[in-house]
Amino acid sequence: MNSSLLLLFFFFSFVFLACADDPYRYFTWVVTYGTIYPLGTPQQGILINGQFPGPRLDCVTNDNLIVNVINKLDEPFLITWNGIKQRKNSWQDGVLGTNCPIPPGGNYTYKFQSKDQIGTYMYFPSTAMHRAVGGFGALNVYKRAPIPLPYDPPAGDFTMLIGDWYNATHKALRQTLDAGFALKNPDALLINGVTKSTSFTGDQGKTYLFRVSNIGLLNSINFRIQGHKLRVVEVEGSHVIQNFYDNLDIHVGQSIAFLVTLDQAPKDYYIVASTRYTRKFLTASGVLHYSNSKTPVSGPMPNPTLGLYGSMQQARTFRWNLTANAARPNPQGSYHYGNITRTRQLVFASSAPIVNSKQRYAVNGVTYVVPDTPPKLADNFNIAGVFSVDNIPSNIPSGQAPVVFATSVLRFNLHDFIEIVFQNTENTMQSWHLDGYDFWVVGYGAGTWEPKHRGTYNLVDATTRHTVQVYPYGWSAILVSLDNQGMWNIRSAMWSRQYLGQQFYIRVWTAEHSYSSEYDMPHNALQCGKARGLH
């Protein structure tokens, strides 16, 4: 075989192996209304293929996911994939800044890859207040066979979606917000769609992986299992130093995975979740059932032991396992984020202004307005007048300037390395999410952030995640490597705040047009607003 033929043989062998390594998984999801009974009485919910919560989506690192979503609601609808980075592909992010919503009776086929990720995630509707009544589910990304886990394979794994719940329709909740009122406290807390009776069965002496996500709208939760320790192993796709906890705080939009060894007497034990840091205390419960148990649950339910300070201290103990692999063969700690020069520093403060007697939420005095044309489409077709660029101040404005209504997009260069401080000016817990990325959470603190606080940052083994909590009247600091070109949403994970303006977009861009940086607009992209009919 001559050298040219040999080279050709190796090329096609490589292509074949690459394709073989990245299989395709196909799904068809039909979205409908249906009657559900989360609180024991009938309520209209949003179902996917007749299920509430929706189907669990399991895949493996680098799988290609083809999800055809058919909208049979009476309103436009979108699904976003919370925590999936959508490498080079913000076209598939499923938020109103990147995608036109699927019209009633229409469909859209998402095509994306779980590229270089493992871990515990979720999906949910990004349109209106649909998320409040269903359409959400778990999304678990398992490792490829060659990549080792930093713990022995568990005997099984359990997925839990926990979140607060309103005994109201999504239209009623939206009408409340549109009328200028904040939402009242939720009515209940659900575990996998019910308030109690959820049961998980395991064998005595074996260890199981629990994947828990806070799918709620407003409240942080605390999770615990009667008589058992929780050994945290993964936080939103990052393997962490394995510490044991009696209970865990999980904030809105966050996910966490931990191991539980069934090392107690053979009986049934309470699984308990409760809301945190609110006046109204809500609880949901389930049962950890030993397969050889003949004794039902008994005794008092365990209570959370963390105050705000203890919760912050717990958050600081989630640290990157520097020697562990995540989705790639190289250890997580091979990327020395603490040594990289920052190109920009930004401080964003949330606020809850009343404007013309109506409740709004804002970032540095700017409240987001959702346009008819997604900014991503407007950017692609060079449509003027859809969004405003760089109009959110990089630091907290002084004084009481009028609130600005705008469709805000901040511009960054591809490969910028930035520092963001989220400042909480309110006496409520905040939760912030960034699409398209994970980021290093390098610091938490009380009071007002000052430059001197950089001296307290963890620049060695801070964990990466996609959603960070900000404690009342406190701050949280993150570092982000902007290596994923596209249009990406930064938002409050607390959905009513997002709906009323606490969000904006970042445009990560380079002048070089290349598939190595970003994919072109997909041929099946829905077009709306000023982009309708453009080519």
UniProtKB/TrEMBL annotation:
Keyword Metal-binding: no
GO MF term set: copper ion binding; oxidoreductase activity
Position of the signal peptide: 1-20
InterPro entries found in the cross-reference section: Cu-oxidase-like_N, Cu-oxidase_2nd, Cu-oxidase_C, Cu-oxidase_fam, Cupredoxin, CuRO_1_AAO-like
Highest taxon of the lineage: Eukaryota
Pfam families per record: Cu-oxidase, Cu-oxidase_2, Cu-oxidase_3
Boundaries of every Plastocyanin-like domain copy: 31-144, 157-293, 372-512
UniProt xrefs under SUPFAM superfamilies: Cupredoxins
Alphabetized UniProt keyword annotations: Signal
Protein family (similarity comment): Belongs to the multicopper oxidase family.
Protein name: L-ascorbate oxidase homolog
